[in-house]
Specification:
Elements: E1 5-9, H1 15-26, H2 34-46, E2 49-53, E3 56-59, E4 62-65, E5 68-69, H3 87-94, E6 99-101, E7 106-112, E8 115-120, E9 129-133, E10 138-140, E11 154-158, H4 161-167, H5 172-182
Parallel strand pairs: 6-10
Antiparallel strand pairs: 1-2, 2-5, 3-4, 5-7, 7-8, 8-9, 9-11
C-alpha cells in the first residue's frame, strides 16, 4: 500500500479509543472485512491530516483532488462531534443530504472541495470506496452489490481501501514542492 504523507497531520493519540467510538456509534467492527482492516492499518501507519501527498485520483472525467483524510482518533481538545475534521462529524454532516437510504452504511474518510470520499462498512458493497461530488446523492440499499458508475457525481474509487490508496498519484511539481518544504 502507498505511503501517504500530510503537510498538517492530526495527532494519533487515542486511536484505539477512536476506533471503539466509531464502531459503537455506527454499529459495526473494523474487523468485519479486509478493506476495513486495511483502512485501520493505513491510519496506524500514515495517520490523517490536511494536504496529503499523493492526493490526486484520476478518472475518465478528470482529476479528483483530496485535501484531507478525516481524523479517526479524537481531537485532543474536542469531542468527535464538535471537531469538523473527524470521520464521525464528516459522516454525520452528509447524512440525509448526500447519502440517503441506509445512511450508516458508509463512513466519510476523506474529502476535498465539494468532494467526499466514503468507505462502505456493511452490506453487499462492504469495503468499496467511492467519491461523492456535491451533485447528486448516493442512495445506499441492501440490494446494491456495487457502487453505481452511471450517475453523475458518484465515482467508484476501488473495490478495497488498498486499491484506492494505490491509485493515488502526485505530479512532479507537487513532489518537488514537498521535498523543498519538508526535506523528505
Amino acid at each position: 500500500m502507498h505511503k501517504v504523507k500530510f503537510r498538517r497531520p492530526f495527532s494519533n493519540e487515542g486511536l484505539q479509543r477512536g476506533i471503539a467510538y466509531h464502531e459503537k456509534a455506527f454499529g459495526f467492527s473494523f474487523q468485519d472485512h479486509e478493506s476495513l482492516k486495511q483502512y485501520v492499518a493505513f491510519y496506524r501507519s500514515c495517520g490523517a491530516g490536511y494536504w496529503p501527498l499523493p492526493h490526486r485520483y484520476e478518472t475518465n472525467q478528470g482529476s479528483l483532488l483530496i485535501t484531507f483524510f478525516a481524523n479517526l482518533a479524537p481531537h485532543p481538545e474536542y469531542s468527535f462531534d464538535d471537531d469538523g475534521d473527524s470521520v464521525f462529524s464528516c459522516t454525520k454532516a452528509l447524512e440525509g443530504s448526500m447519502i440517503r437510504g441506509n445512511v450508516n452504511d458508509a463512513l466519510i474518510i476523506a474529502g476535498g472541495t465539494h468532494l467526499s470520499i466514503g468507505l462502505v462498512i456493511r452490506g453487499k458493497c462492504i469495503g468499496k470506496v467511492f467519491a461523492l461530488e456535491d451533485i447528486k446523492p448516493l442512495v445506499l440499499d441492501d440490494e446494491m452489490d456495487d457502487i453505481p458508475s452511471d450517475i453523475e457525481g458518484i465515482t467508484k474509487l476501488g473495490d478495497s481501501f488498498e486499491e484506492f490508496i494505490n491509485a493515488l498519484s502526485a505530479d512532479e511539481d507537487d513532489i518537488e514542492e514537498w521535498e523543498e518544504d519538508f526535506g523528505e
